[in-house]
Design goal:
The structure holds 2 protein chains of 2 kinds. Chain A is α+β, with helices and mostly antiparallel strands. Helix content of chain A is 32%, strand content 25%. The longest helix of chain B has 21 residues, at 345-365. The chains are: A alpha+beta, B alpha/beta. Chains A and B meet through helix 5, helix 8 and strand 16 of A and helix 11, helix 12, strand 21 and helix 14 of B.
């Protein structure tokens, strides 16, 4: 359930392992969160722990995915725009510098390439960067991908291996047999299945409710500004050091921290805001103004650039900031692959492999245990309101 | 006292502002151009006034009287050079309207945020031009651009000009070209005799009340005859030819659904071509405000011109393409209602008459789906991002996606500087044609939450300097 990038990657992984797979989505392919972000494959924003390990595993899969898909897809399929451009995290205050350097130290111990660079090197990497930085760390492993193209490519590959993709089909309820989920009801009938995978991103809580279980996945709003095309003057993914703190925060209030990057098309994307306010799709002037102001702190030359578009999306937020991957112990037959907040594009490929291995009963993977639904940090949230 | 904000200084917006003033409301009228009047009464700027301006317009005296009344009224603030970049929906109040005032592409424009008690949107329409091979050659103009150059600059787009497309708007374009000395090689109307008769002939008595329009059209017809300009129906320009610019076009006969008939292509020499296939309501501000739209993309209104959003009214082309008389009537009703008044019965009657006229217009000249057959795979559909029709069709076939959002992002169609203003409808209809059973999120190309490009420096400064104002 869900034709975003996590559903797409999971479908491809399962169908390649010999499963008979159907993907259903209430809307169209790549029409939700996967189309609402920048396409980040990051290690730079992750502290040592299970999410970082999942990201590192994902990066290894991303490294070989283009070649695999080239074999699986017909010529002329839109490219993924996968760029190994690296990320540059920039602190602009003394306190920020101290926090960033300590964070990078811990990441290095966890195997992340995190190169602390001096001002000269920082401006070699980004000539138009603000002269007022207090510390800069370069993360050569950070990648960028065009998330919609990646989703479509994974889905098309799944279809080539025999999966069916049904768009505009809404799941309305469970099909149960002896306390086990054996399929779902959809608006046009029923779909029987031995395993049902919930990969509906921020809407996962709502779908889970229809299946009769509570799942604490809630939407966290984000907004991105897009400039008109320009010659490339932002060469890496460039973040202000506040970004790291904002990603890990659980606050419902608006937070804005800068993420600036160029796309293959020549536009510059400016993120990112975080705010919990349900599925409210409004794009507010105050948020856009705050995004612009933050971006100018990193790249003053952008003052003359034109913003021509803004788009928003909803991240699937989980209270303890870890995705939920694996079986639902409360309802046999139901599996989860959701709750990646803003990191689902990057984490999708390793998520799909973890889920496949558990679903097909392979060897126990110690990392899988970290994302169980009934982990201690999530247990308190499994009772009470789902939304 | 009710305070009314009117966005758009064309006929509908002017009528709305005047009506709101008559009902005692204080009014702010925002207009992006240098002067009010809109596309319909577009004229030379004040510094280069033409004593013969009247000859260029229908209802010029009425325009002058309306403008004088608005500009001379202390209760109405007319703000020209006012570029609305964001309309922000709120719960329990009409939306906030964010504006930059100054040069269109300026830096350091003055930011203003208006907090109206009632908002009348009268933003008009965009021109719709269907693509064809060669339409991106220099010398191919939209009819609206040709008319704007003639009316606003007194410049002719070519020496020998062919005018093509659909709808009565082609005729004033011919008149404008003749007035500035161009030769018009012909007028090519895509609607065939059956379509034209189906729109214009049933219940001809309905036209009696709209005879002003009939008189205008008869005047244009006499002009065509006097200049011996061929007027051909059921045909279309299906290709433009030339190396550096247009030298000739191919005109082919069309079936009833506008599919070109093979073997009927005929070459016509011309150094410029003006093409227009009608208009599309300019809805980005209304959509940002949360207003419901119908399947035709026009904003849905009730009999008092109220939209689905409390406190937001619309008038003119935004509610459906209908021309100046309908815009004036709707504007007057919207302005009256926005200020808490009751619309004048005369305006309500006029609206009824010209709505029927608008329905006939749509029937007689409305775009039919066969046109997609003249767009070959190499024809650029989205010109900002250089996306060809073939690339669109291939992406739809290869991905199987029924999502416009996904297909836009995989092809980049509609993502360029114009944000789909020019190509949006075309992209949607091409994708609908190639991916049955159709798109699951149609209409998306009309969404532009940033209504005009804004410099990041201006945007960043806007929160610091812009105080929210009540209107006025």
């Amino acid at each position: 359930m869900g034709a975003g990038i996590v559903g797409a990657a999971t479908a491809r992984a399962l169908v390649r392992a010999g499963c008979d797979v159907t993907v259903v989505d209430r809307g169209s392919t790549a029409g939700g969160t996967s189309a609402g972000g920048e396409g980040n494959l990051l290690v730079s924003d992750k502290e040592p722990g299970p999410e970082l390990r999942l990201a590192q595993r994902s990066l290894a899969v991303w490294a070989r995915i283009e070649a695999e898909l080239r074999d699986e897809l017909p010529a002329g399929f839109p490219g993924l725009e996968l760029e190994r451009k690296g990320g540059l995290v920039v602190a602009t205050t003394e306190a920020g510098a101290e926090a960033l350097l300590a964070f990078a130290d811990a990441q290095r111990d966890a195997g992340v390439l995190a190169e602390t660079v001096d001002d000269t090197r920082a401006h070699e990497l980004e000539p138009d960067l603000t002269p007022h930085s207090t510390a800069t760390v370069f993360y050569p492993e950070d990648l960028q991908v065009q998330p919609v193209a990646a989703t479509e490519a994974l889905l098309a590959a799944a279809r080539r291996h025999g999966a069916r993709v049904r768009q505009g089909v809404e799941v309305t309820g469970p099909v149960l047999s002896a306390g086990r989920l054996v399929g779902v009801r959809v608006d046009s009938g029923t779909l029987p299945a031995d395993a049902v995978v919930l990969a509906a991103g921020p809407w996962s809580g709502l779908v889970a409710e229809r299946l009769g279980v509570l799942l604490p996945v809630r939407p966290r709003r984000g907004t991105v500004l897009v400039t008109s095309r320009m010659p490339v003057r932002v060469r890496h993914k460039v973040y202000d050091a506040d970004y790291v703190g904002a990603v890990g925060s659980g606050s419902a209030d608006l937070q804005v921290s800068s993420v600036v990057e160029s796309t293959a098309a020549g536009t510059v994307l400016i993120g990112s805001s975080r705010e919990r306010r349900g599925f409210d799709e409004r794009i507010e002037a105050r948020v856009l103004a705050a995004l612009a102001a933050k971006a100018l702190l990193l790249f003053p030359f952008l003052a003359a650039a034109q913003a021509m578009r803004a788009y928003g999306g909803f991240r699937p937020f989980v209270p303890d900031h870890l995705p939920v991957i694996g079986a639902d112990p409360r309802l046999p037959g139901l599996w989860h692959a959701t709750g990646h907040e803003g990191a689902g594009i990057g984490l999708s490929l390793a998520t799909a492999e973890l889920l496949r291995d558990q679903l097909l009963g392979g060897t126990a993977d110690p990392l899988a245990a970290e994302f169980r639904l009934d982990r201690p940090t999530l247990l308190p949230h499994l009772e009470g309101a789902a939304r | 006292m009710t305070e009314v904000l009117v966005v758009g200084g064309g006929p509908a917006g002017m009528a709305a502002a005047l009506a709101a003033r008559r009902h005692g409301a204080r009014v702010v009228l925002l207009e992006a151009g240098d002067d009010i009047g809109g596309q319909y009464w577009r004229h030379l700027p004040g510094g280069r006034a033409d004593p013969g301006e009247r000859l260029w317009h229908h209802g010029w005296d009425r325009f002058l009287a309306m403008r004088d009344e608005l500009l001379g009224d202390d209760g109405c603030e007319v703000v020209t050079g006012a570029h609305v970049w964001s309309v922000e929906r709120r719960d329990g109040a009409p939306p906030l309207v964010h504006v930059f005032v100054g040069e269109p592409d300026g830096q350091g424009r003055e930011p203003r945020t208006l907090d109206p008690a009632a908002l009348v949107l009268a933003t008009g329409a965009y021109e719709r031009t269907l693509p064809f091979p060669g339409w991106d050659l220099p010398g191919v103009f939209t009819a609206g651009a040709a008319q704007a150059l003639a009316k606003g600059e007194r410049v002719a787009v070519g020496r020998r000009v062919l005018v093509a497309g659909a709808g009565p708007f082609l005729l004033p374009v011919v008149a404008g070209l003749l007035r500035i000395g161009a030769e018009v090689a012909g007028v090519i109307e895509a609607a065939g005799p059956a379509q034209l008769a189906g729109g214009w002939a049933p219940r001809p008595w309905q036209l009696i009340a709209a005879r002003r329009k009939a008189g205008e059209l008869a005047g244009y017809a006499r002009q065509l005859a006097a200049h011996r300009i061929p007027y051909r129906t059921g045909a279309a320009v299906v290709a433009a030819h030339g190396t550096d610019r247009v030298e000739a076009v191919t005109v082919a006969r069309l079936t009833r659904d506008w599919t070109p008939v093979p073997g009927t292509g005929r070459r016509i020499e011309a150094d410029a071509v003006c093409v227009s296939h009608g208009f599309v309501p300019r809805t980005e501000l209304a959509l940002a405000a949360g207003c419901a739209v119908g399947v035709d993309g026009a904003v849905t209104v009730d009999e008092r011109q109220r939209t689905s959003v409390p406190g937001v009214l619309t008038a003119g082309e935004l509610t459906g393409i209908g021309g100046v008389d309908l815009a004036l009537a709707e504007g007057e009703i919207a302005g009256s209602v926005a200020s808490g008044g009751v619309p004048a019965p005369g305006a309500v009657r006029e609206r009824a008459v010209f709505r029927k006229f608008a329905a006939r217009l749509a029937a007689a000249h409305g775009i039919r789906p066969g046109w997609r057959a003249w767009v070959d795979d190499d024809t650029v559909v989205c010109r900002c991002e250089d996306v060809t029709a073939g690339a669109l069709r291939r992406a739809a076939e290869l991905t199987g996606s029924r999502g416009l959002r996904s297909l836009k992002l995989t092809t980049r169609a509609g993502l360029g500087l114009c944000q789909g203003r020019t190509c949006g409808r075309t992209v949607e209809s091409m994708l609908t044609g190639s991916n049955e059973p159709g798109l699951l999120d149609p209409g998306r190309t009309a969404h532009r939450p940033i209504a005009i490009p804004v410099r990041l420096g201006e945007l960043a400064a806007s929160t610091r300097t812009s105080n929210r104002e009540d209107v006025p």
